[in-house]
Please model this.
Amino acid sequence: MKQRPPPKRLIILAIAAFLTLVVALSQFGNFSNFKHIPDAEHYIAMAKGESQKALMPYARRILHPWIVGKLGLFMNLDIAFFVVGTLSVFFFLYIVTTILFYDVKIPLSASIAFIYLPYLFYLYRSLYLPAIFFLCLTSLYWFLLLHRRYWISLLVLFLLLLAREEALVISVSFLLASIIHVAKNLRDRKWYIYISTAIIIIILSQIIMGNISASSMNTHNIPAVFSFFLRIPAYFFRNFLGLLHWVDTFPRKLGYVDEPILIFEAPHWLKAISSIKQWGIYKWDANCLIRTYIITLSVFGTGPIVVLFFLKRIGRKIIGKSVPINTILFSGCILFILSPVMGLDMIRYYVTAWPLFFILLPFLLKQIRNVDNAVYAKIIASYIICAWLLFLWWFPFEFNIPRLIFFLGLIMAEIGLYCYSWRLLSVTSKKICLTIENSAAVYFT
Model:
């Protein structure tokens, strides 16, 4: 009797487990060092129940350390972080691969190629931080949203709001997408309830986090709202211009041991709301510029240029097709744009925009395959090569090439792949755009 092949879901499960094992084993020898990465001490303190030791904004990210702390009642706390982080990688890979295979309907090999990229190895090093846990939880949220399980997705959205502040962008994007839907379907009353519920859970989550972190302050004793808006220009100058910002409240343990090259007196309004008395420019650092451009160009491969190509041509026509696709578009674009001005560890921020590149992008590329298979293969190859160039940034010293020249060559290679992908898309743009516009009505309504 001929044996039946194993169900596809079991195959996906096995692949996700194997790929998770590869990530974990590649980093396992360095696990003892993970707790010493910047900011980890805040989450360790929270997991121990010592939330008063955590500074803002870490003190507001309560869900991940709470889960680790509860698990830590039954095992060593370090093992608890390891278990939660490893399971997060596994479930993320399993859920997103399932979405790609069953919903977007692309081959299993292509599904893996889209999502199994260097960012996973990088985030795994930060498993004491909530980034990889947040990645897993968002995969569940988007799965539920794409399958129109709105009530359960709102519950998961509430949990996301207790995990990281990027969930606010997702929440606002969902509200905006819902309002657009209601404007076109005024009699669809259930959406008024969804919108009201979303607003309630946003307010409730902020109240809960505010009460729990009421006694916590950041290094500069500046309110969270002002801190958020002030970090945008500070990290813009740092990441895009290489000008490291400085304030007199920076502790010397962060490496600020020399005198800044420029010092200014803080304005009166800043002194009134914080402990900052002086600010300035610490130094110019070319490494910040190089890091910014390499990460921005490669974290999602050539995905940004492909998405931009189609948004430029048919963005208005696919917006409004459905609440899920609008939420992906709005949140993905906002998070991707904000990522380089949110902090120094940009990969951690960029990855929160993953649905734009791991759900919408595969759909777009699938339509290219229906029009021109050769163009599709070349664009996929460019995507994969560009994404894995990020690995060379982490291990450049194995090459007998001066550091700066090597990095500049890496950036030029990434730009070259972007230009190549744009040119390939331009060749068959009319046919591809028409196919996508027609298919969007089927997939996203």
